[in-house]
Design goal:
Six copies of one chain form a homohexamer.
Chain A (H helix, E strand, L loop, with lengths): L11 H9 L4 E5 L13 H17 L2 E2 L6 E2 L3 H4 L9 E2 L1 H18 L3 E6 L5 H17 L6 E6 L6 H7 L14 H10 L21 E3 L20 H22 L12
Parallel strand pairs in A: 1-2, 1-5, 3-4, 5-6
Helix pairs in contact in A: 2-7, 2-8, 4-5, 7-8
Organism (chains A, B, C, D, E, F): Hyphomicrobium facile
Protein name (chains A, B, C, D, E, F): Creatinine amidohydrolase
InterPro entries (chains A, B, C, D, E, F): Creatininase, Creatininase-like_sf, Creatininase/forma_Hydrolase
Chain lengths: 266, 266, 266, 266, 266, 266
């Protein structure tokens, strides 16, 4: 039982021993959001969790229960919150969930947390959640708690981009439910990808501004911001390796005394 | 892909079709809480989810992403919130999570929701979450949305109790991480139960009141409120059947036009 | 003036002397809620206050102003919040009232508080109110403030139950505005009980779950969950004695250095 | 039972009949605040309630449970919140209590409310509480609910001032626990006034500004802002008559269809 | 650049040097509110800022960015919030803005702040904002931060009143957009006063109470509570001198170690 | 007076006429944030306002009072919130300010708003503020209110970038207080730029993640993320023209019936 990854699958006594031994906690934060007709709505939380699992294996870290609901989908980022199925939280709800659980991890004795975000819209609210938690922790006299916060896709290496997009990278902006996410899902959860449903809409062409209420006509009906054509499990594997290695290296650099396994990722 | 149970594993297009077809949503609400040295901390969310899955199979319903963090553990209910590992939300954080997702389900077009609670301390906050959501829905002119709310253990039949506790039922009050929950976990997730770690503390003997800060000495060190001695997967199966059948019947009675599969549970 | 019980009837100089002398504060928390056609809507706050008064006399304690509005009435607990007259607070309103006044008592120099709840629906929100107050007090460096929290009916002795219900106790669940509350009111406030209006509805028969919006048809029209037939002032006296003695004993046990009068309750 | 004044002493059926008959609700709002060594801490809530009772008798109105905790005492208004015994709410706690109960009165079917404030510091927060309630009521389509809001001392007639202060009125600013409040308490609650403890501090002499944290030295130690010398029950009676008549007349003018008793106040 | 007054026009390095040198911060708080047809809607914020500028010149103080939106206009104070153009904040929004910026000034190292309020309705919310900030600062161990809070008109000297109102002062209550504010604007911002639009409504005649929703008929259509007839830049100059001198003197008295320029105001 | 741009300089009667005539409101949102030793802390709010003014001149629009405090500065975006002088709001404070004023503009009768953001960290909170306002407006039955939301730098044309960075554009990420902002300030507010203080730090080199508490060593001491070398008023003029024209065109496209002046920008 000592080699479990998921906090929720451990007993409290096991967890306590791991924390006392200096184990790091990884917190995946995702969303329940439309990802086109070919990907499941849990894509963001599944991919953030997948990165957490890969990193946890390297560092003997603990994967906390993922935050499965995220901030409201935005048209240019995830198609918009008008889609059926997209299930989002108000800003301060999400912020308070993060604030509360971070404070609990600190109470447990943890002093290092890595928050792995898989839904772009969450970014600023994870920052506020961390800030509110750190502020209250300081009121309790806890000032040595540290959080490394990241969006996993920022660890994509240029070499990988070139391999995945041999004809040129259109940029991260329209990658919602497109080549990168679909490839990652084909690698991590192929049974949840419906390749037959891959949409063929043209890429979205957004202006430099937003309009509210959402101009739903700006978004391809499928909810996919650019075609996933060219997606492949093999590409997903390359990306997954970038994230596993990149995030692990970042943690080792910033939290040098974190427990590290001797074996290297296959 | 049409026979998936979990909302997060469906594409939005599949989900939309199911909702348009009148599918019911089941929302499991649990906790991340110590359950003694023999059960995993995710026990409450796993059991609420297990009930949801069994019911969903009967009714062709959709299981929404479970709420994995619950309200602060209380000494007499779950051992208290001072345990390492127990990871809880403030009351209004939990309430707002429920409020927000319920409003989203209504926006999707759903009109029937079943909230399945697996953590006693959550009860009143699920009620407030539902009330706040219903109030805002009424502001939007939505007045036909209905929620059936339950604690799953309230569906335990007397006959089952008698079979599980042949020497007399000590009552639900001390059943935290005890015979019933351990039996259910042995049935649903045997690989997560560590029978070798079953504690042998005597049952807790609580007074008629609470004291805060928690008198931690009142709670057996293990976190288990009464011995799980006598737990068995077979007993868990009996309980699971009560919940699957009882909850399904309740839904059929209250939401008679809900889609029902013809096959009966094996 | 030194023998007053009610904080609000004392001058601040008297109160300060009492607090400096170690006097305990008792905070009654009730509701404004329908209690059938025969009992006044203030029943919960009057009974919580009555217990506080009886205990205060034993322990030379101070009775703080009662919280007269409580959490939303629930069908199975108090008939439901749809009744005309029932006047309830949102969860966080009630929680914040309790948080704020508890912090004030601590600022005054008090270090022991007994919160006496007379409305079942309030329970979890009194817990959250206490927790939020304790948390903020700890930020101020106050860590020796203690709260004993109770529902008064949990101090009913088995012997008393047997005397009051010679034909068998139907259980606390349906006791809203029924034999126990009516008897207590006949003992404490007979002029407010209208025996001619005693309803004769059959007991409510609730299922194992809730439905929202409230299925108002589940609740007897009168708002009384089971018949008050057999109520009597003499029975109320027995109950009152249980509460006065039981709560006093609990306080003496948990807060042993609390000031105790020498005379015993008549 | 039909001639009761206090909502909390009525059954819901009685209350409902009264509301259906167009009865007006009066809501006293006070504080728990030091009022010198001679007056009880509940002075503000007792006086607001006394006005409500006198008016209710004229108009066959209903007196709702008083709000017993108010906003934080300010040095120039009530001596400051640093006094032992003063027990105050945060602004939004008080505001939300008022918002919630006002919405409940509207749900009951009431359409006219009079909020009688007895604690100066509450004024702006009663305004915000009313505004938030009215806003939410409008979301529900209720737009005919009206609130008359007042501080009772604004109904003091010039003739009365001249009688009470034959040597000239020093103004309302320093009247905290001074001649007017003490006279009113001598009239309404003489048993709660300790004339032997009447302080003889000189009047406070405040500058044109505030400093926070409170410069406690600005406030006379007793907490009384100007001497109560010259207070008398007879003067309290004059004031009480002004308030009873003035408030009643205001209500009759603004809410002309309110039920009015035929008898005149003695 | 060292002689700039406005924080927002300074670089952070300049500001830091000033703060390290003990410079005082002045925070103007105003509103965006109708001020009749002849005055701009920014009158309150402009006048609070003008006072701040005059004082800052005397004391080498720093003028922070003004809070341009205030609490909801009240009929008797500023005409009511139903006017087109009046743009107000909810109570807790305003309170939180003040709480947040005060905490930031303390983080910068400032220990003395003067909050200059120019909108009567803001008063109690500035008090709550200050209180919430002080409370949190105390959690951080900062207990030497002081705030001097004022409404600028309270510094009007009797001699000035007599000069401005040779025929008798009607009192501050109806001075909204009337002689004093118009004179001050003629002095400070003559280009923003439209003397041709000076309304000639009679003074408002308010009762001793409020009614909500606002009885808009109580307020002169122009939004001006009493005629500005007799306003003059020269009168504004007298008032401005009172405020500049009075506020400066108050600060010197309460915060004696504040940096003072040698030159005297012309 | 009819040709004023700033709402706060208009009387309410003028404003009302403009709104009734269909005038558009522009709301600048900025920050009070360090911008290196050479730029004032109000840079973000000044530049957002400058864009608003240029656009307002084209469209006969109204410039609302700018929001002068923004969300907490982030290391990679604005240097971090640890700098002396940076004065930020909590997320929900900023969000609620925007929610409240947007609702007020709608109450005034406006149906079109352009929110011009000048501080990157504000982006998601402006989105939430708009969403909360729209939601409440819908409760009031107002569903035709539209907001165009933008960060002004997204209107920089490629041709302009090439002219400003003849040796290649390092990207927007490090442009805090660098060439673009300094050039714009040299154009709009040259008297507030201290060219002698232009820092010569090397560009910041941030990793792909954040660490909290902020690793202050990551940020150049000056607070400038990349050298402003090469800044020039002439470049600022080019940028300003892009924004004036680009934003005006966007508004004309999305809000085609907005009032348009005939004259073209010089």
């Amino acid at each position: 039982m000592s080699d479990r990854l998921f906090m929720n699958e451990m007993s409290w006594t096991t967890y306590q021993k791991r924390i006392e031994g200096g184990a790091l906690i990884l917190l995946p934060v995702g969303a329940t959001e439309q990802h086109g007709p070919h990907l499941p709505m849990g894509t963001d939380v599944m991919l953030a969790t997948a990165v957490a699992v890969d990193v946890a294996k390297q560092l003997d870290a603990i994967v906390a229960p993922a935050v499965a609901f995220g901030y409201k989908s935005q048209p240019k980022m995830g198609g918009g919150n008008h889609y059926c199925g997209t299930t989002s939280l108000d800003a301060d709800t999400l912020t308070h969930v993060l604030r509360d659980v971070i404070k609990e991890f600190a109470r447990h004795g943890a002093r290092r947390l890595v928050l792995i975000n898989g839904h772009y819209e969450n970014m600023m609210f994870t920052i506020e959640g961390i800030d509110l938690a750190m502020r209250e922790l300081s009121y309790m006299g806890i000032r040595d708690f540290e959080v490394l916060r990241l969006e996993y896709w920022d660890f994509t290496r240029t070499e990988t981009i070139e391999k995945i997009f041999p004809e040129g990278f259109p940029g991260f902006a329209l990658e919602h439910a497109a080549v990168m996410e679909t490839s990652l899902m084909l690698y991590h959860h192929p049974e949840l990808v419906d390749m037959a449903a891959l949409p063929t809409d043209k890429p979205a062409d957004f202006p430099a501004y937003d309009v509210y209420p959402t101009r739903t006509g700006w978004v391809p009906c499928s909810g996919v911001l650019s075609p996933a054509t060219g997606c492949a499990a093999e590409k997903g594997k390359l990306l997954a390796a970038d994230y596993a290695i990149g995030v692990t290296d970042a943690i080792r650099k910033e939290f040098p005394n974190v427990k590290a396994k001797t074996q290297v990722m296959a």
